[in-house]
Amino acid sequence: MVLKMSRMKYAPLLVFQLVLMVLYFVFVRYGDGEDVGVKGFEDTHVMIFIGFGFLMTFLKKYCYSALGFNWLLAALVIQWALLCQSFYHMKDNVIQVTKKSLLEADIMSATVLITFGALLGVASGVQLLFIAVVETAVACLNIWLVADVFKAADVGGSIAIHSFGAYFGLGVSLALRSKPSTEAPATNGNTVPAVDLNGPSYISDVTAMIGSIFLWIYWPSFNSGLTKTDAEYQRAVINTYLSLAAATVTTFIISSAVSKYHGRLDMVHIQNSTLAGGVAVGSVCNMHIGPGGAIAVGIGAGLLSVLGYRYLTPKLTKLGVLDTCGVNNLHGMPGLYSGLLSVLFAALATKEKYGAPELGAVFDAMKDDGRTASNQALYQFIALVVTFVLSLVSGFFTGLLSKLPIFESLKENEKYDDEINWELP
Amino acid sequence: MVLKMSRMKYAPLLVFQLVLMVLYFVFVRYGDGEDVGVKGFEDTHVMIFIGFGFLMTFLKKYCYSALGFNWLLAALVIQWALLCQSFYHMKDNVIQVTKKSLLEADIMSATVLITFGALLGVASGVQLLFIAVVETAVACLNIWLVADVFKAADVGGSIAIHSFGAYFGLGVSLALRSKPSTEAPATNGNTVPAVDLNGPSYISDVTAMIGSIFLWIYWPSFNSGLTKTDAEYQRAVINTYLSLAAATVTTFIISSAVSKYHGRLDMVHIQNSTLAGGVAVGSVCNMHIGPGGAIAVGIGAGLLSVLGYRYLTPKLTKLGVLDTCGVNNLHGMPGLYSGLLSVLFAALATKEKYGAPELGAVFDAMKDDGRTASNQALYQFIALVVTFVLSLVSGFFTGLLSKLPIFESLKENEKYDDEINWELP
Amino acid sequence: MVLKMSRMKYAPLLVFQLVLMVLYFVFVRYGDGEDVGVKGFEDTHVMIFIGFGFLMTFLKKYCYSALGFNWLLAALVIQWALLCQSFYHMKDNVIQVTKKSLLEADIMSATVLITFGALLGVASGVQLLFIAVVETAVACLNIWLVADVFKAADVGGSIAIHSFGAYFGLGVSLALRSKPSTEAPATNGNTVPAVDLNGPSYISDVTAMIGSIFLWIYWPSFNSGLTKTDAEYQRAVINTYLSLAAATVTTFIISSAVSKYHGRLDMVHIQNSTLAGGVAVGSVCNMHIGPGGAIAVGIGAGLLSVLGYRYLTPKLTKLGVLDTCGVNNLHGMPGLYSGLLSVLFAALATKEKYGAPELGAVFDAMKDDGRTASNQALYQFIALVVTFVLSLVSGFFTGLLSKLPIFESLKENEKYDDEINWELP
């Protein structure tokens, strides 16, 4: 009986995959070829499947699950996100799919994978699938609010993708928090193995670097993929490149400075905080922030992220809010930081707007609807607040639902362990 | 004496490399720059050298050979394939090489690497080199029959590359089958180590995922690389993307459903059957199969491939027909499936042909020579049958020849082992 | 006290990063969008951060440092190189940064990473940072001499990048040579661990292949990135592709032929000498060397490189000149070889120049300034000699300076060991 249930645990997933197929047959058609020249699709594809997948192999006994569930979740979400995103832009009840739609679906899947990072090793496969399906729908609603209702600029998705994914994940984590204060440091027979497994081996930290470095390499493509003009595209590439470089140098400096072990570097910082430069510059990378400004943003991002890993995450863990990959430090806070920068640069757009029409063009509502700079700044702020609240709240309730017995929560001694999901050698 | 012979074992390869050089000096010239814009070359290059190479590192003690021989074979075959393929299109006894020729040479090398997958760990380096040289020549003849004589549509090479490579490999395997029924389960001193080594370690299954995921990521580029128009290109990318996504989700579901261990996932399925969606859609990916159709194709591919690994491969192994990577399940059967789909869509082309001229354009012979849809369907079928028979038969005879003493067959206790080929740490 | 000093060891780096930020604010502006179509940037980016990084993970206990310092050095150098290179081309005291500048900065960082390869495991982090900053400035001066003063052709950077980086590294190594003859074979307690760690493990040689193969795959993009016409671009891609393929086949043959162990292959050769084909063809890859010529160049490169690893490196090591990755065999000698080929093809350009104007176009000074072929050949030679002497001498003096106490040289028992730099699991 147990056997049969285990084998059938993905039966609802099969039903969902078949429903997706039917929806595609009914609603989706090939678009015309005008988006064929879209940049950054292949690079973003590497980030989603290699980047996120390998970054999460840092746990010593959870590499198969990290790679496997990353792949499964993304393969499911890209199909589902393409529908959810296009739902708000249907014409005659038909969805026109182009190469650009695929890029947008890939970008949306990052949201879910960031959430997965918060829950790595503590949520079961079935829980993750349920969370992914719900999160995608809410995140697509949110991105519609940000881009189409508030008309906020967020070309690299730091608000609508990175912040959303991180705080949705922390919302779930808050809901999954079982016994707040006594659980974490408990040392009874059951929890010991799980606690033991929540850490890297020498080789798992090396394979995690595959993911980390590929994410870093292709981040300029990710941030610039949805730009519209050559000048905007080039600014996005240059700013992201410089911000990442500066964040990387800063990460090494600060990791050594705050070390508990004689100035030694912490691989967690190197794998993650180096990337915070890409998140932090995301919402403003296509603006005239200046190459020096991009470096300044990156320095701030590296600093913020390492300090978060070093001082904030242990506090959250003590409160029972688990965040296995520390997505709050890589995606959450740097995303909020980027959102605030977008408020700043929108407010500063006033005098530049007429002198440099290109800058105005970044804020479509200023160009097309005559919105003022301070109004644009306000809408950037609203977009940020709505994203933060919506992600946290919807994540929390999704987390509560995911504790229902049908979603097969993990026991303490099943956490961070490939054993329950995989035939191991 | 033994020493000297071992050191000189690659002497014939040196001669062949020098002959290639002379042939290039005599026959090959730079083509003009009109193919410079060819898409997908760099991505395909990653698939051949990283994708195939790392996918085959799943054996615990054969990683060096997997990576090394993959590299050696492909580096040799791309030089040789460029000559063999262009042989049928020479003008004034001159071969014009362009960036597109490099892409075609890369694609051809996939054929040999698929065959290598069937023989992984059981054929010696010298055998593999002999097989590769012969196979390339025959496969180039076959692709000329398929594309130029039968004028069959096969843009992603599922017929001429994937099926050919798989069944050539199974043909060789059939010929190498030494003592059919008693050999496999034997447990005498000699065979035990080999049997022991024919399996993964925890880390080798992780490095294999590097190859698997890169193949998956760049498959849309592979299938669309030789398309001619933007609309056709975009259909190829979208269909391959969706088919792969659906095959991936299906693979997880079915792997769990047919598991012998409480619904646990099998890494072999995850590494391989996920990719079957790319093969299955290959021959038809540029056609108007519809986004829903692409998902349906992918679901079928995942199902077919996992069931093949689970139930068919063990039967073939019992019969002595070894297929180390299970290429029959990843390339063989999905390739035949794709070929049959191309028959179907050719037959359905009739009424679409006039309504949607783009579809007709996929079948050059229907557009240029006035071939009817049912005739086109017939030629698609002939191309599939000829490929299957030619690959199996030529593989079988090549396998028989490779058993000659000069090719240094492996003894049972030398199989699946880097020891005989590499200085190990 | 010791603790505090260790934690503050990167304080000068923080100052340098802040100085860079200020320089960018003052001098650097976005260029216009005309270089947006530059080819090869993303591919080169992969080579720098994944390629060089993972290639150097071959040491069993130095993977974190290889990946980490590679990343840190490159992230620092790209910011610094962009300034140093552009210094010679400023207009109105302003540096215009474009996507092409990023490519050039990436290419320049390769110089420093090659030097890092020579010093892998024997120089401390602080030494490496000091060396990187000095080397970048000198290398940018040298590339200005080669390209703008001597007007030598060197599109793939085999002279100004590969040779420079290798001989700068050997110059440093010469200066670091502590006790020439007795040190190396010493077996007292202190040196034993270091000697033990200067070698690979089974898995570290596999991860090194990730780097090696990605370098190999994207080398055609690296060599062709700075070409100016489609025809020149295509020649660069084809020649690099063929030279690499031939070098790879040759490497396997020669590695087996010179083996001390029954013809077994040496992973060091496979990881490195395969790439020598890309270096050797670099300076001439955009010229009319012919596809057969490209294969000939590659065969020579594989031969030269394997023989260097097998017979020359052990001699240098005995003399106390350490070269951990053998960059002399991968970048140094193949770079000189490529430089000499450029002398040859410049001299041969005479009669071709008028018959095939495209060839002339490769040598800008012949087209624009009426320089003769023999004069061009002379300048190619001067560029090569100046590069060799400048790199070796400046490397030597930089090495001497790096022995100052403030740069924290490693003790014998700290070499090749992640322990001193990293919190290990």
Automatic annotation (TrEMBL), chains A, B, C:
Q: Which UniProt keywords apply?
A: Membrane, Transmembrane, Transmembrane helix
Main location group: membrane
Record localization:
Membrane
Its membrane topology is listed as: Multi-pass membrane protein
Q: Is the Repressor keyword given for this protein?
A: no
Q: Which InterPro entries match?
A: Ammonium/urea_transptr, NH4_transpt_AmtB-like_dom, RhesusRHD
Q: Does the keyword Transmembrane apply?
A: yes
Q: Where are the transmembrane segments?
A: 12-31, 43-59, 71-90, 159-176, 197-218, 238-258, 295-312, 377-401
Sorted alphabetically, which SUPFAM superfamilies does this protein's record hold? Ammonium transporter (SSF111352)
Quote any Pfam family the record assigns.
Ammonium_transp
The residues covered by the Ammonium transporter AmtB-like domain are 15-408
Family that this chain belongs to: Belongs to the ammonium transporter (TC 2.A.49) family. Rh subfamily.
What is this protein's record name? Ammonium transporter AmtB-like domain-containing protein
Organism expressing this protein natively = Loxostege sticticalis
